Amino acid sequence: MNFTSLKFKLIVSFLSIGLALALFIIIVVPSRTKSTAENVMLENVGFIVKLLSDNLAVGMQTRDLDAGAALQQTLNLIKGGLVETVAVLDGKHAFVQGLNCDKAEFSRDTIVNRENGLVIFKTMKDSDKKVLGYVEIMFSKQSFIKSINRFKIFIWLASFVALLAVVIVGTFLSNRIIMPLNKSVQMLKELASGSGDLTKRLAVTTNDEVGEMARWFNIFIEKIQKIISQIASNTSTLSSSSGALSNVAQGLSAGAGNMTDNSDAVARLTNKAVSNVNNISTAADIMSGNITQVAKSIEDMSGSLNDVTASCQKETRIAADANAQAKATYELIKGLSVS
Asked: 11 with 173: CB under 8 angstroms?
């Protein structure tokens, strides 16, 4: 048995309660019962003593008339009962008659509770409160002690039965409490290990706290089952989406490869363009120098052209004059031909 388990603790608790109850019954109840029984005995004995003393007082009054016959008759009536000894004394404490004794032990009213008996010394008086004598009665406790011992045996047996009943009831109740808990623990272990059956439910057979626990545990498992079903459905959808995303990723990977190649080509072209730009810049610098020289030459040529233009204009005037003279000569020659 697992000494740290709740079942063991419950059984030990019930056993402790049973032992405490048994010890209480064995130790406290007999002593209280004995004390109560002695008080009851004292009350009964007091009543008996009063009756006996009254009867003995009558016998003392008639003792001179009947020679103590009434007194002896009263003593014979109480023989063999609880009364063990009786001593009857006259007004001067002189022994008159007795039962199983020939003297009195005390001389004044008293009650002495001994282990084996109860002794009572009482003054006998008539109706006018005149003292007629004294009586000393000893009551035996043997029957009382036997009754107490029988009661103790009964108490011990009752304590053993009560202890056994507590253990049996404790075991039954602990099993009634622990079994649903063990089933819950087993289901939780199966769920934790991944092999649990979410369709199983705990049996709800009571309306107490254990039944309430089983009811809420079933509700908890039902909610988990719904969540797991929804997760399974979402997992299927996610699996399909993952396949599509995988294809897209592969396409993106291929596109990324092409982009990388294109980027390399663009980089090479960019480098070549930068080189060309540098060459163009150099050529531009050279061209700029050449253009400056050309501009200077153009300026020189412009001056020369202006001179040439002036000469051409002069030549043109000369040519026009020559042309006019040629026409005039032609007309003259033409006129001469006609003549």
From this structure: no
Give, to the nearest 10 degrees, the angle between helix 142-193 and helix 209-338: 20
pLDDT digits over 213-240, tens only? Answer: 778 888 888 888 888 888 888 887 777 7
Encode pLDDT of 46-103 as tens digits: 777 888 788 888 888 787 777 778 878 888 877 777 788 899 998 888 998 888 888 9
Neighbouring CB atoms inside 10 A of 59's CB total 24
- pLDDT tens track for 15-25: 788 788 777 77
**99 vs 76: CA distance, rounded Å:** 8
Nearest to 52 by CA among 141, 122, 112: 122
* Rounded Cα distance, 169 and 177, in Å: 12
Order of strands, edge to edge, in the sheet holding 117-125?
Answer: 95-99, 83-89, 131-140, 117-125, 110-113
Predicted structure pTM score: 0.42
pLDDT of residue 134: 92
Q: Is 38 exposed, middle or buried (0-12, 13-18, 19+ CB in 10 A)?
A: middle
Q: How far apart are the first and last CA of the chain?
A: 172
Using CB atoms within 10 A of its CB, is residue 118 exposed (0-12), middle (13-18) or buried (19+)?
A: buried
Pairing verdict, β 117-125 and 131-140: antiparallel
Q: Is 114 strand, coil or helix?
A: coil
Size of the chain in residues: 339
In this predicted structure, the answer to whether residue 337 has a pLDDT above a threshold of 60 is: no
Q: Is 289 helix (H, G, I), strand (E, B) or coil?
A: helix
Q: In this structure, what DSSP letter does residue 324 have?
A: H
DSSP letter (8 states) at residue 62:
T
